[in-house]
Hints:
The protein is mostly helical and about 300 residues long.
Amino acid sequence: MATFYEAVEAISETEFEEKRKxxxxxxxxVSDYLDLxxxxxxxxxxxxxxSKYTHFGVRDxxxxxxxxxxxxxxLKSSQGNLxxxxxxxxxxxxxxASETSLLLTQHATIASHLLxxxxxxxxxxxxxxxxxxxxxxLWTDAEKxxxxxxxxxxCSGEFRAVHGRPCLHELIAIIESNGRKYITPNDFxxxxxxxxNDGTAPQRIQDPATLQQGRFKxxxxxxxxxxxxxxxxxxxxxxxxxxxxxxSATPPSATQNAAQDPQVFGTQADDQxxxxxxxxLPARSWGYAGREPYSEQNIAEE
Length: 302
């Protein structure tokens, strides 16, 4: 079987014919069986043939066989007409449509922590989560190549043509652009979009801006005591906890003090020193022997 899989994964016709010769040398019976039943469909299973069209990485029949098995489990019979098939499969079709609708809603509303990175701001909740996870795996490999200065091969365009999403070379170009390039929904085929028709896509809720980081970096000890940084256990703020300091709805504590009303507080030119006009009253003397508290008459005489 290993030689058969090597023949299926052949990237050229020359390599495919070499693997066929190896199969003949190992087992003539198996080679004749493959020639009779399988190799006549090589345009659908062999890599050097399937790389000429977009199949999104699916070259096996497991998905079709799984669906076929579910249909047979629902029918429970090989006899009947189309009406019987429709009537027995109606509940299964309804459940499948509901599950698909629920899955699309989850993809459009829920973003995992892995996809909350800034490089996915333009595609999250537009492209399916599974596709972005596969892109994240390629991004990790691209970062290793860029940071390690590893020699890279020339881009053949096969990955883009087959899978309909950014390849390793495209992600390397985005990393090396230092923010001038970014991942957009147009980099993905419509097959990977949550809502493939623009008419059915609901209005997207924009995420709040991220917190602005301080200008000066804290010391390692302060970061550790505040449970931040690589040595801390504090978590990063979620989307709902982030605040845009330039937004008009930002709490007053995060903005500058508002200008004071001149009619209430006055201005620098109109401010005057207002004298204290009340009569000066010395300390009350009651409580001392032989003296009485000051009265208004005594104050006037003094």
